[in-house]
Request: fold
Amino acid sequence: MDLAIRILDLDHVVNKKAEIVRVYLPPDANCLLSVTDHCLRSRNYINVIVAGKQNALQYLDMTSAINHCTAGIGIWKWASTDAGVEPDVVMACAGDIPTMEILAAVDILRQNFSDLKVRVVNIVDLMTLQHEKEHPHGLSDKDFDSLFTKDKPIIFAFHGYPWLIHRLTYKRINHNNLHVKGYKEEGTTTTPFDMVVMNDLDRYHLVIDVIDKVPKLEKTAAHVKQAMKNRLIEHKQYIYEHGDDLPAIKNWKWPY
Reply:
């Protein structure tokens, strides 16, 4: 219920005038501190911060967090494998849990496809996705294309309804290659990771999406795709027997 209320509020706020609306989805605690400090100092804006209640991983030190939040969007070079070359896929994320699942998916991809070039883009300021003519924080087409490319598949993990991302980006050149995973009205009393699985927002579904969307993997990744499906089955069996998420899920951390 709490998740649904926050998502409905998010959609409602984005309908308001662009000049006064700001929506932030910090991926970790330092980014949350930076965003909150900015919002408390601002005036005459509707500021919305989306943050979870549970303990979460920390990705950025304070200086990096401030720089990232000031920009509102950016490539996480330390999580990407496309330095100096064109990426095969862009893994985008907005929100704390989506960020963790994208990074966990990238971890799996790096373990299984050493030659796959992955770009990780994290979005703190949701309104950067809009065009600069539609929102003061929006990106120009050139800047958007620089981050997301003009023709590569984009797997986008989002905290809210997927249609909102499509709405913000529908005029972009590469919109047809944008595949958004988000909340789709699925949920019940279950484990935290199972809630993510029920909405196809988990690391295993994200890896399967990459395999399905990246041409070079379609004919060579059948074994990995089957392994991801098996992990989902193991997850369901484990929570049915133990009422809790697998230790490998609960204890996962970025290993690089």
